[in-house]
Amino acid sequence: MSAVLEEISGSDHAAIARAVAAGDRPAIIRGIAADWPAVAAAREGDESIAAYLAARDNGKPLTVLVGPPETGGRYFYTDDMRGVNFGSEKMPMTALVERLVALRDRSDAPSLYAGSTPVSESVASFAVENPLPIDTGVDPRIWVGNASRIAPHYDMAANIAVVVAGRRRFTLFPPAQITNLYVGPVERTIAGQPTSMVDPDHPDHARYPLYAEAERHKRVAELTPGDAIYMPPMWWHHVRSEGAVGVLVNYWFGQRQDRFPFAALMLAMHSIRELPGAERAAWKSWFDHYVFGDGATHAVDHLPPHAQGVLGPPSPQRDRMIIDYVVGFCRSGGSG
Fold first, then answer.
1. Strand-pair partners of 153
2. What 3-state DSSP class applies to 228?
């Protein structure tokens, strides 16, 4: 059983803005790109969308992941977890889409997947010709390939993903379900963020029994050309792509580049995780007081502004003091 995913009309820009501003739950945005020329080309067939992209190719080589037929399009670790089950090649957009069209009728076709390429570096006119009706302030990225299955992962930025060609099935899990998703290595990842070891299409409940609880909270979005999905930061999502020439464009936005939450987590694991239980509990009180709890809003009200230092309100000076303190502390080996 899965929870219901909110749907918003792509023409209701006010509702989209409210959903993005709330930032607490994902939503399907139906038909937001229904009038895009690229979507119109996709509706005419594989050759048409392939020609559309090839005509705008600037010739820059793309990194294309190549999965052997036996992987079933699932980009993942090898069975012994010493590597990954795919390779990579370099080719321009024109060569990629021509190869995708040539492979579409082959039962033994490999999976090809070029992802996260800024459109300004590959098909520069795409963003101008196919504008998102809401302003995210970022350069969109394009994802092109045939059938694929991307393991559950998360983004640290908000994300609007628009299906241009093919079909996409998003299976989402709230951030709190991390405890039931059996996360893989956090520093040696497949393609960026840590991923779940569970295959939502074929879950092994004997090996991953807690995943049954995650399934109770999952939300599923079936998207066709012109549809989009909004995903708040940190929501886990598994993505299945269907079609001989699948195209998706996404917009990551709202992430501050001067914040390093994952690095903070890694440092906390190094510094706190192995402490005795009583000490961990004591540090949890500090984190609750200064970071997570209600006390964070009045933790320094009793100090005059000139004495608050790193505990003071946000400012470039305060942020610099914090970074300098952490860097200096790490360089000294924790002795200063």
1. 237
2. strand
